[in-house]
């Protein structure tokens, strides 16, 4: 048995239902970026738990942003996640990531968030 495609009316109803959630997420974007930046800064200072937290935040950020249709935000968060991937739990984890690359990726995330809020 194959699933049928939703009707136009069903798609519009779903969009109306999701719109308030999407708008609330959009409003929280700057705070989420600030939290991620703080976790990255603590990780850079040597806090391995905060580096792991930054990885978790970037992963959750990219998934939620993508689900709500903020593709550029999702891609920018994914870049941060990938830069952190595989570097957790290594000796001197705070030195492992390429910090210049992470700072550039964080800048791209901030720009994507600014665009999404317009």
Polypeptide structure, described:
With 118 residues, the protein is an all-alpha fold. The protein has one domain. Helices cover 75% and strands 0% of the residues. The radius of gyration is 17 Å and the shape is elongated.
Concise description?
This protein is mostly helical. It has helices at residues 8-44, 48-67, 71-84, 99-116.
Please identify the oligomeric state: single chain
**Tally of helical runs:** 4
Measured on Cα atoms, how large is the radius of gyration?
A: 17 Å
Helix content: over 70%
Order of helices and strands: HHHH
Main sheet: strands, sense, barrel: none
Shape: elongated
Q: Structural class of the helices, strands and pairings?
A: mainly alpha
What is the strand tally?
0
Unreliably modeled segments: none
Beta content: under 5%
The tally of domains stands at 1
In angstroms, what separates the terminal alpha carbons? 43 Å
Please tell me the overall pLDDT.
89
